[in-house]
Amino acid sequence: MANLIIRFKKTIVTIFTALTILSLVGVLFVDVNYNMQEYLPEEAESTQALEVMESEFSGGIPNARVMVEDVSIQEAMEYKTGLEEINGVTEVLWLDDIMDIRTPIEVADASMVETYYKDEKALFSVTVANEKEVEATNAIYDLIGEDNAISGEAVNTAVEQEMTGKESMYAAALLVPIIIIILILSTNSWMEPVFFLTAIGVSVLINLGTNFFVGEISFVTQSVAPILQLAVSLDYAIFLLHSFQDYRNKHYQPADAMKSAMKESWPVISTSAFTTIFGFMALLFMRFEIGSDLGLNLVKGIVLSFLSVIVILPAFTLVFYRWIDRTKHRVFVPTRFTGAGEKLLKLRLPVFILILLFIVPSFLAQSSTEFTYGMGEQPEDTRLGADMRQIEENFGESTSIVLLVPNNEVGKEQEMVQVLENANHVSSVISYTTMVGSVIPQDFLEEEATKQFLSENYSRVIINTEAGTEGELPFAIVEDVRDIASSYYGEDALTLGESASLYDMKHIVSKDNQLVNLLTILGVGIVVLFNFRSISLPVILLLVIQAAVWINLAIPYFTGTPLVFIGYLIVSTVQLAATVDYAILLTETYKNYRKYMPKWKAMKMTLDDKIFSIAVSASILSTVGFILWLTSSNPIVGSIGLLLGRGALLAFILVVTLLPALLVYGDRLLQKTSLRMKFYEEEKNEDN
To answer: pTM above 0.85?
Structure first.
């Protein structure tokens, strides 16, 4: 393979240049999905309900609240007419939909009226069509002006659509210069970082372009996958090019140096790539399909990065290696830290004891953290955050639940609606029976009067609640509504809405967590098992990285900070898959040294040689995480970034402190549980 790459190096560079250009064009035709509801599995009740409602009704789920201040009833009606005329707004519900507003509001039910109108403030419940969020919310802002407010799922989606692209560009603008600085400090040529970034950059662009064949990706994938792919796979390029330069320094001809470098770096690169691929593959088994969407893109991305490093980078380097020679600079940071190993090994007992003390509490704490499942709170310094507070201060929290029931028994529906109206934390119920009553036959009414609430097969009931979208109370309300509805209609009753979707999401991703973590550990463990031909090494390596994962995910519990569950679930997989490479590199080097020297000396040499390489990898991944955290307004993406940045640092610390202790203390165990692992026979006085 090396001979073929060297022979056709110019052809390879030309082919991949063309593929990169085609991929850039393909990126323009990839749709991004911002609707988390659509990633719930088909068996989720809210998914089934959404399919039924889309086929039976023209209206959707109320997904925005619009508040207008200092208005009379008549002026509020004018605003309602204006809202209804906006392109993308399919439905507007207000006070006139539940009572005759010609009746003086003083004699009407006060609690019902104050749900929509109080203190000369009007609150409209608005439904915005899918994929029309940006256009519709911008038009609503124009209609209501700066002093009034809008909040809800549709506005969240609109903000994300407008911000995700900008924030990705901002993150890249911060990240690339920082990575270049890190790489310049770790090399002795100004052009080497360009070679690294070119090889991985090509694979990132091809990965983005090939999403054209997938058709659509989630907003989480668009925000996280490209940067994560770059950070995780940059090591492969560094391993190969550093090896190439080492052979060049030994006076090898460029072609011979590349052959030797490919042969030498193949075991480390392939093992690193396969552990990462198998780790990310676990995400494909998530029923909540944002995970599988991200997993597919990461697996595809790592495969492309691997191919790029073993095919494009050698060819590109051999075509342009003179650029490296002409741009040499002095070494800013030594690549070998003599004495580091001896100092780190002195920490082995304190670190070992600390981890023993913390590992069980961390394991218990990380599963007891308070989780959120949606977008969470918006910062108050944004228009959206300020609007949310303004609406909640005047009208309190409110979320709509839509209930679909068979429309063949109006009397049963009316009885159920009365029970729902008296349920705890339900502010109002709007349905055919509350609007028209049960005594007027449906056939006597015009379609315009019934189409919002009646279809050929179903009756639609809108339940307004006095709670937010998620948490103990909203989820308890969802359970109450479902219990009441099922007591009348059994499995024919279906609920949907943001709180219902988040309730379903909670139960689905909680089950996903156990499966994904198990598959990640098994996948990575199997690769390590076959690579080292050892039973004990997979256990030791996974224990070290998993300890870092548990400590990382336990920190929110001890600080009392709610954690976005999707971020928790993804990072518990990604951190293990991405940072186990550090442990593999250190273990592989120790194993090679151990063949020729005593264990303590072998470990000191290993740490002296590899702490810099591991530090470079960890600093890049950590930088990527923290920049995602700092630049993203999306709580899910920000959560993934913070956990990833902190996790990379924790993994680095444990790999250079805890892992050496485990390898040295378990030296005899390694030999007994590994195939053909022959170590240097030590004298007794050398064993310290």
So the answer is: no
